[in-house]
Amino acid sequence: MLRRKEIIDQVPIYVPGKPIEEVFKEYGVSEAIKLASNENPLGLPNKVKDALIKNIDQLYYYPDGKAASLRSTLATFLNIEENQLLFGAGLEDIIQMISAAFLESGTNAVMSGTTFPNYKINALIESAEVREIPAIAGEHDLLTMSKMVDNTTRIVWVCNPNNPTGTYISHDKLVTFIEQVPKEVLIVLDEAYYEFASASDFPDSLLLMNEYTNLIVLRTFSKAYGLAGLRIGYAIAAPDIISIIERVRKPFNTSVLAQIAAIAALDDQEFMRNSIALNRAELEYSYQELDRLRIPYYRSQTNFIYMDVGVQGKNIYEELLKFGVIIRPMVGNYIRVSMGLHEQNVRFFDALEKALTEIKSV
Ligand SMILES: *Cc1c(COP(=O)(O)O)cnc(C)c1O
Description:
Structural class: alpha/beta
Low-confidence stretches: none
Bound molecules: pyridoxal-5'-phosphate
Shape: globular
Mean pLDDT: 96
């Protein structure tokens, strides 16, 4: 047997959303829709497409490891200093870097039991202990999470709004929580869905950073900006936190075209406004349909809805594939469904109704 990290055989494998091509092949359907990975249904912004085509010849160069151009554009956009930014090949890259820089055997990371799986996977890879605190009604149990922090805790993961439940933590609740966590412990605020959050009491995490020095905020171009396939995301924190994580960053971790695309995406705020408006309208439509079908769900601050379909999520997932609809099965009777274009969401609810009838009749 090969000598290897003791923990490695116990690290769970991340299960991604099913690619559309697989459904074509396995189910013989000619047309499928993917509502499984929270991608932007409007596709790539036009300004990004133009920039990519225009700059394709740059690809023989190594990327700028510091992403200087994107760094200055984004720093201006966010009204922060350039040395407060860290770039990654998506947030999954940044989550891995944070884990590598902060965790080791004998330390622990505190997180919700119902949240983004990468926090746990990366903590295990670093041989750290994972402290998962069961969610309450889809929300982080912040009080218990703060009580689970001890002097071997290195990171507390806070996903806001939360994937997969779509719920959020208000400004007041977040501040109370931050006050309860020792300032020697890094608090990560994963705001992958920040642009979709519309609640008036959603926290302004960049403002909180002025008061609390142990915060790092994660945002991505994968979701609302529509660049999931390019792999680019970023973190915002105090320069001393950023420089710790920079030590584990691969020198060329973000590609030439991803950096160019991100700059173009920031310049296309009209696309952003359209994305958000479409998402709001489709969340409202979906709530109506869910109420009509008497399916319980959490109201969402994101571009997906977590719902309790009353039968095994795995079963409904399989049944929906026959209709060419790809969603994400979750634990027990839960599924997570991304907001698509209106006609896609109509098709989803039509398929869901039929699939539920089908499953309940056997
Ligand atoms: C999608 C997602 C990420 C990862 O996004 P990237 O595509 O790697 O930027 C991180 N956190 C949450 C909560 C997500 O839903």
